[in-house]
Specification:
7-stranded mixed sheet, 14% strand
Length: 318
């Protein structure tokens, strides 16, 4: 696929800002833990002609396109098919790295797919697995297996959708009538009947429900805290971790994990000794998250909710 066609598919969010924070150096080893279409990876490799990059992604289609896009950098690039939570396993033979990026957004390649069920713009089977070859249940299978209360909890906790109970009730009513929800169009129509939105609401009524199911199908939040701790463990002293989140649940986990590892105790004030496990292993490079400017938001509306948090490893675990 031509380079400009790839750019049209996927505009890399906070590209320059993120790579600037890495301070790419000679012979440095960098990891893009959510490679996608390699926008950040290309920028890293172009910053210094001696640095190396390890790219990780669980989506086989994205990896093939990234491989094509990074071919010019030859042996400086290593690509691995894995979930970002497996970063320690992927890098077990690497003795520390200088920088790690994780862009937690769904790739536009996935969002714009007419077959994979991530987007409500197309009528497609409700799949939503990032790794199509995995044995994880699809979104349709989850909706067929979970109880009404479990469906409501998923939509409320992962989508912060206040009409979650009403949506869950209608999903189960359909299921009991022998018409389970199996396509994006069926789910959208059901959500639109269940959700009250004011004219001021900018997002589509189904956005929160689709987000919730995607997170549940891929176990996204379950592995994030572990990934952050493992990523910091792999960094050399002085190494940088840059994380881009796209919704408040992810951002909250990143913020809380970074505060704890920067030594900020979260125990109650009267607690005689610290029991929360806070250790000063990192320093916060960004006190507040970096967000896209007005120009980027206009050019790429999907960047609106992006937040970049950056830390530096300052101490050894031992």
């Amino acid at each position: 696929m031509a380079e400009n066609a790839l750019e049209n598919i996927h505009a890399t969010v906070l590209l320059q800002e993120t790579v600037d924070f890495l301070e790419v150096k000679e012979d440095g080893v960098y990891v893009d833990a959510t490679l996608g279409l390699a926008g950040h990876a290309r920028e890293i490799l172009q910053r210094n002609e001696t640095c190396r990059l390890i790219g990780i992604d669980q989506d086989g289609e994205a990896l093939e396109l990234a491989k094509e896009r990074l071919a010019e950098f030859g042996g400086r690039v290593t690509l691995e098919k894995a979930n970002f939570s497996a970063i320690k396993t992927v890098l077990k033979a690497v003795d520390g790295v200088d920088g790690i990026i994780a862009d937690l957004g769904v790739s536009s390649l996935q969002m714009d797919s007419e077959e994979r069920g991530f987007s409500f713009r197309f009528d497609a089977p409700l799949d939503m697995r990032m790794d199509e070859g995995s044995d994880r249940p699809t979104a349709a299978e989850l909706l067929a297996a979970l109880s009404e209360e479990e469906i409501a909890n998923v939509i409320y906790e992962y989508g912060e959708e206040r009409f979650s109970r009403r949506i869950a009730r209608r999903i189960v009513e359909r299921r009991n009538a022998g018409e389970p929800v199996t396509t994006t169009k069926q789910l959208v129509e059901l959500v639109e009947r269940s959700v009250k939105r004011s004219p001021k609401d900018k997002i589509h009524p189904a956005t929160r429900t689709f987000q919730a199911l995607r997170i549940a199908v891929n176990g996204e939040l379950d592995v994030l805290e572990t990934f952050l701790a493992d990523a910091i463990d792999i960094l050399k002293t002085g190494g940088i971790l840059a994380v881009i989140t796209f919704h408040s649940l992810e951002d909250r986990i990143a913020k809380r994990t970074f505060q704890k590892l920067s030594g900020k105790c979260s125990c109650p004030p009267r607690m005689p000794i610290c029991i929360c496990g806070a250790k000063k292993l990192i320093e916060l490079v960004t006190k507040k998250p970096v967000t896209p400017g007005d120009d980027e938001q206009k050019q790429n509306p999907r960047s609106r909710s992006a937040k970049l948090r950056v830390i530096r490893r300052i101490a050894d675990h031992h």
